[in-house]
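Comment thread on ticket #2218

A.B. wrote:
> Attaching the input chain for the structure job we discussed in standup.
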Amino acid sequence: MIGAPFENWSDVAGASYYTGLGGGELIWLVISIVLCVLAILVGHNHEKKANSK
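C.D. wrote:
> Ran it. Output below, let me know if you need it in another format.
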């Protein structure tokens, strides 16, 4: 990289935080996806019940 103070991504401070470099982000990503899907389903069921009245 021209003008960059590092030669590769391993030299970048905090590069291990990116998904796929051995961090624990995959676990949090899956938890976030599950929570989002759960929120959508709960909201859908709530609206379905509210509109049927």
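A.B. wrote:
> Thanks. Noting for the ticket: The first helix runs from residue 25 to 52.
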